């Protein structure tokens, strides 16, 4: 009976960690204070609702674990909210133990604030967590013994072994697991930013090279105009060509800069057709340098509206295009093609290459963090891209044969159907 109670209470205590993994799984952001407030309040409510009533009016649950967690990850504000929630709910429940229970909980609140100060200013988190676990598991029994000694002596095993052990394990488990999950998330966010700069810097090297070509052409025309006696019509023609070259270079550079800038967080109506054209222009020089032909095979004449963050979409397109080009570098007559097709409520973006291809085993590992077969690869490009596509309610399908090539089919709901969110599929 008591085992069942302990297991149920530990489950409530671990609720914030479980919800973190569910809610933030596909998000490129870390937990917020609001998240801690909501999950710890919910957890406290459930723990108190299903608490163990040993003697009439005395209830035991994992409230101390939740208070400690709330203060450590959500600060003073979360602690105060939990305190108010506790008092209100405890008054509503009633019973003999109100005042003893409230003073113990108030004490937990202050102890948690104290440990929070130490936790924030030290790197020895495990030690602080263990110390907090020990103190917070002993003090409830101690205060109860000072106020109502018979409660402790009547249930000696529970108060000396079960509850202290439950608090100790709960505090250690919840704090360690949550801290690990949150720091993994922070590391991933950080790495995907670095991955972006890494990808962008490769493209920049080829872009700088490519900008020299129109410059050389324009220089040639200017020299011709300056030193040759050309007729007016020819001069105008050369000036027009030069202006066109300059315009094109200017637009490629500004598009490149728009990709390289730090991403905004805003989602909105985005024209995928335009984004694809931008990426083709920006990646053209990278493809030429790698001896790969890139082609836009099919594009609808009308704008293709989706709900997305434009910066994220561009980054995803760069990742897929860069992988496709990299898969082709050793291949003669290498070709990467992109096409956009409207099918029912979705837009299908197909990226096809005739590069090295992948085995079934490699396909099954796609999207796993840090999975890369390249000597200088990061294995973050697809992890990031899959997350972004999933968050848009899209799906990804892969077809690939070793030495034949690869075809990625990305399906994204069109603007009017964006609310429906199918799961990501890899086949
Ligand atoms: P990285 O490019 O840094 O290796 P990614 O996450 O972009 O990391 O890609 C992970 C792995 O997926 C690559 O190392 C490669 O083995 C494989 N891959 C991705 N796209 C293709 C493709 N078009 N053709 C063949 N292999 C690919
Ligand atoms: Mg890559």
UniProtKB/TrEMBL annotation:
The lineage of its organism: Bacteria, Bacillati, Bacillota, Bacilli, Bacillales. GO terms for cellular component: plasma membrane. It catalyses: ATP + protein L-histidine = ADP + protein N-phospho-L-histidine. This is histidine kinase. Pfam families: 5TM-5TMR_LYT, HATPase_c, HisKA. SMART domains: HATPase_c (SM00387), HisKA (SM00388). It comes from the Bacteria. The keyword Hydrolase does not apply.
């Amino acid at each position: 009976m008591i085992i069942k109670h302990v297991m149920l209470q530990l489950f409530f205590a671990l609720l914030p960690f479980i919800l973190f993994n569910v809610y933030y799984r596909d998000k490129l952001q870390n937990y917020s204070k609001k998240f801690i407030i909501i999950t710890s309040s919910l957890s406290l409510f459930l723990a108190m609702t299903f608490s163990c009533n040993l003697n009439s009016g005395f209830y035991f649950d994992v409230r101390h674990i939740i208070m400690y967690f709330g203060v450590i990850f959500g600060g003073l504000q979360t602690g105060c909210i939990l305190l108010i929630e506790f008092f209100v709910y405890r008054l509503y429940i009633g019973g003999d133990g109100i005042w003893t229970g409230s003073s113990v909980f108030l004490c937990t609140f202050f102890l948690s604030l104290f440990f929070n100060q130490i936790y924030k200013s030290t790197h020895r988190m495990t030690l602080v967590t263990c110390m907090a676990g020990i103190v917070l598991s002993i003090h409830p029994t101690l205060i109860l013994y000072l106020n109502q000694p018979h409660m402790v002596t009547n249930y000696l095993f529970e108060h000396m072994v079960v509850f202290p052990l439950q608090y100790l394990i709960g505090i250690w488990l919840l704090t360690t697991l949550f801290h690990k999950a949150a720091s993994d998330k922070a590391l991933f966010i950080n790495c995907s930013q670095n991955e972006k700069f890494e990808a962008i810097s490769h493209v920049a090297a080829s872009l700088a090279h490519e900008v020299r070509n129109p410059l050389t052409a324009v220089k040639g025309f200017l020299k011709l105009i300056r030193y040759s006696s050309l007729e007016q019509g020819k001069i105008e023609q050369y000036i027009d060509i030069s202006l066109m070259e300059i315009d094109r270079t200017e637009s490629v550079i500004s598009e490149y800069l728009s990709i390289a800038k730090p991403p905004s967080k805003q989602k909105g109506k985005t024209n995928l057709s335009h984004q694809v054209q931008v990426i083709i222009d920006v990646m053209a020089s990278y493809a030429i340098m790698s001896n790969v032909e890139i082609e836009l095979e099919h594009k609808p004449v009308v704008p293709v509206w989706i709900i997305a963050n434009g910066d994220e979409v561009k980054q995803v397109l760069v990742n897929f295009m860069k992988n496709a080009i990299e898969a082709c570098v050793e291949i003669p007559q290498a070709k990467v093609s992109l096409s956009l097709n409207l099918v029912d409520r979705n837009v299908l973006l197909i990226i096809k290459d005739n590069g090295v291809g992948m085995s079934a085993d490699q396909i099954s590992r796609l999207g796993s963090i840090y999975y890369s077969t390249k000597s200088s690869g990061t294995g973050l490009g697809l992890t990031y891209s899959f997350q972004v596509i999933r968050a848009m309610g899209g799906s990804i399908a892969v077809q690939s044969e070793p030495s034949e090539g690869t075809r990625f089919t990305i399906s994204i709901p069109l603007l009017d159907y964006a609310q429906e969110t199918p799961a990501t599929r890899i086949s």
